Amino acid sequence: MSAGLHIVTKKKPGKPIRHYVYAWRGGPLILKKEGGAKPAVTQELTDKAAELRRERPQDSNDTIAGLIDRYTNPNCAEWKKLSASTRTDYTTWHRRITEEFGRVTLKLFHDRRVRADVLDWRDRFSATPRAADMGITTFSALITWAVDRGLMQHNILLGINRLYESDRSDIIWEQHHFEAFAKHASVEVQEAVDLAAATGLRRGDLVKLPWSAIGEKAIVWRTGKSKGKNMVVVPLTDEATTVFDRIKARHAAEMEAKRPDRRKPLPPTVLANSYWEPWTPKGFGSRFNDAKQASGIDVNLHDLRGTFATLLMQSGDITDQQIAEILGWSTKDVDKIRMKYVSHTRVVIGIADKLAAAKMRA
Fold this sequence. Notes:
By secondary structure, this protein is mainly α. The protein has three domains: 1-55, no CATH class; 58-165, DNA polymerase, domain 1 (Orthogonal Bundle); 175-353, Orthogonal Bundle (hpI Integrase, Chain A). The protein is built from 14 helices and five strands. The chain has helices spanning 43-55, 64-71, 77-81, 84-101, 114-123, 129-148, 175-182, 187-199, 203-208, 238-256, 281-295, 304-315, 320-327, 331-361, and strands at residues 6-10, 18-22, 29-34, 218-222, 231-235. The chain has a three-stranded antiparallel beta sheet with strand order 1-2-3, with helices on one face. A two-stranded antiparallel sheet has the order 4-5. Helix 8 (187-199) runs antiparallel to helix 10 (238-256), helix 8 crosses helix 12 and helix 12 (304-315) crosses helix 14 (331-361). The chain is globular, with a radius of gyration of 25 Å.
């Protein structure tokens, strides 16, 4: 933040760095620069921001833009309570909301007919339904906060149907998915995929999993969510142990090949990027999506939890109820996977064995 301006820098693998200068946090975009250093704060940019500020309604607190300023104030308890990743996502959508509705007064949002305008705005992003839903979630959270503070009468955005609806509880990665993905993934991303399939961890926990959580028989870790109240307990499979050993061996080999002054210790997290530094959830997500798109597979990282479920089923030592508790699923979700993949596979193998035996007798 400089001279009231809000400067955002975005980096994406394989693409030039981009800088965005906004008139203020949540305000309109006044400069976009591709490549090079962060834009300098010039008199021209400062004057442009000042001009846009003058165009805002005098009582900015009575507008959506003013409401966003109050909600994102560092002293706002509800804003501080959000995780860093959620604040980042919300900030992106606050800018888009400001561009479309920033000058609209709060009183206008007492009229339910404005709901149609918001839906029309949401539909511009319908090509990516999950993102469009995030826009509504962000907007609705903002208005709910205003209602709680007595700034608005009610939230007209409650009850909007989501665009993204997909029951993927019975979808898993199969061998052909792994083979196609491996052709386009870096070793670091492939290690993450293999570990997800062997542990069932979600992306956020996967990239933050510390070595200290690896026990003799289980992964036991109190995550950062809910102020450390969430506990992850996952049985330590042979497949997971193999991934852990492979990562340690690769690190040792890479460090051995470097000059002593360039060597670095194994990072505190199990997974790391090419610089042997812990992944950020978004950084890993970007690299994963690049490999997924290049491979053409139609499964998601989250679907590896189903693959882990089949691994536990095939061990024969864990009940469906226990699997459901480990993954935070219902037993119905576990049963779907068992019927579709595990039980079906065993039936087919059984039939094949019978046919082979009949052929031998003949």
